[in-house]
Design goal:
By secondary structure, the protein is mainly β. Helices cover 5% and strands 29% of the residues. The strands form 2 sheets. Strands 1, 2, 5 and 6 form a 4-stranded antiparallel β-sheet that branches. It has a two-stranded antiparallel sheet with strand order 3-4.
Length: 76
């Protein structure tokens, strides 16, 4: 998430980052299945462009390092 500015949609620089939010689970969809810990879900940071509204979701590094070995994810 280091190189997030400018916005890839409008080239704007008025970007805002959220605190970490849960990727779901429980009664909600789990958007990062298999990447959390035992009985825990992974977390996202959201970045929103004030100029055009583009919203991007960034998984934490702890989650992305598990992608290549997780049976729930397929390389495209």
């Amino acid at each position: 998430m280091n190189d997030i500015s400018p916005c890839p949609n409008c080239r704007g620089t008025n970007l805002f980052r959220s605190p970490e939010v849960s990727a779901g689970g429980g009664h909600a969809p789990n958007f990062l299945p298999g990447l959390g810990g035992f009985l825990t879900t992974e977390k996202f940071t959201l970045v929103v462009c004030e100029d055009c509204g583009l919203t991007r979701w960034f998984a934490r590094k702890q989650a992305t390092v598990k992608l290549s070995t997780s049976p729930k994810w397929t390389r495209v």
